């Protein structure tokens, strides 16, 4: 395995694309687990999904109407509803039986005549079925879902690594599964640092409201973290952080604040005390430059995010999101680019990530205001984040787009 830190620049910030690659390569998928279908939403398949039965498992009526044998007219007898087993005796030529959508076709039936295409008449003790005036006679196999139309038993349905969606769960149930073997969603501990943070009310007395705790919990879950992801507030005390990290059993630990070089920035000190190996120590990106990624002695990753809210968001997209995909066995998102609606000034040497909204008419990415490191107003109105290369980009230039992942596990 290639050393994930091989691309880091000694003594300098890691280029933004390399930092993302290092994060992706720093983790491997968690061990597979087998869970009931209802508990697998948001995971990914850890092994291929194969059909356990034919779908449909018998010839089925695709419409309400009559199962008919031969060209007609047909002598009517009986009724078949979904869930009923037809008799073993074949439907004789010239006979028909009333049938509901989803009901098993009786042996000997050649087609289904839709309700709107037939007319019945009473003739003596028996009823007769005719094709309605102006309607075509049913062709053999018409409105019949033949056995195995969707798949045969043993057919490969989906590959390992496929995200488990409600539709996948429905397919698995239809194919005979009660449980699935999946890669679980990683558990994340978020440790929010800062004695200046308030838990409620407006900013006051020189202190500010904690925005990252409320932001990170739902966002990390949307990016693939498990529902048992937790957020804890810690005082600015390196011993408390040391104890919290050392006692954590989470698959990924994220800290916020304390990654720069200020008087209470001690994340580096704690990482060193724990014997962790720094893979990324600063990234050439704005905002969010003083972020870090370290591997604890047991191999679990720790991401240190800056304390400024938009800078922390950049850190999540740069380091935490690739790690969550790697741990959860998720594929990388398909990259795409969108033209800019207006020019954006760039940093001379660093990549910039800025919030953008997509123009309804042109589809272009419109840069939003309020995109300073401590601001969330632009991000709250954004559709995505645009990647601005060093030196900036002109109006009309195609720039890479990062979906923020609200409401998804992208």
Question: What would your notes on this structure say?
Answer:
The protein is 17% helix and 29% strand. By secondary structure, the protein is of the alpha/beta class. The protein folds into 4 domains: 14-30 and 185-327, Molybdenum Cofactor Biosythetic Enzyme, Chain A, CATH 3.40.980; 38-54 and 150-183, Alpha-Beta Complex (Molybdopterin biosynthesis moea protein, domain 2); 60-143, Beta Complex (Molybdopterin biosynthesis moeA protein, domain 3), CATH 2.170.190; 337-403, Beta Barrel (Beta-clip), CATH 2.40.340. The protein starts with 13 loop residues before the first strand and ends in a 7-residue tail after the last strand.
Helix content range of the residues, please?
10-25%
What is the CATH class designation of the largest domain? Answer: Alpha Beta
Report the strand count.
Answer: 28
Number of domains as seen in the coordinates: 4
Major sheet description: 7 strands, mixed
Distance between the termini: 26 Å
Topology:
Elements: E1 14-15, H1 16-25, E2 33-36, E3 44-45, E4 49-50, E5 60-61, E6 65-68, E7 74-80, E8 95-99, E9 111-114, E10 118-123, E11 126-131, E12 144-145, E13 156-158, H2 166-174, E14 179-183, E15 188-193, E16 197-198, E17 208-209, H3 212-222, E18 230-234, H4 238-247, E19 252-256, H5 267-273, E20 277-281, E21 283-286, E22 292-295, E23 301-305, H6 309-327, E24 337-339, E25 351-358, E26 365-367, H7 377-380, E27 384-388, E28 398-403
Parallel strand pairs: 1-21, 7-8, 15-18, 15-19, 16-17, 19-23, 21-25
Antiparallel strand pairs: 2-14, 3-14, 4-13, 5-12, 6-8, 6-9, 7-11, 10-11, 20-22, 22-23, 24-28, 25-26, 25-27, 27-28
Helix pairs in contact: 1-6, 4-5
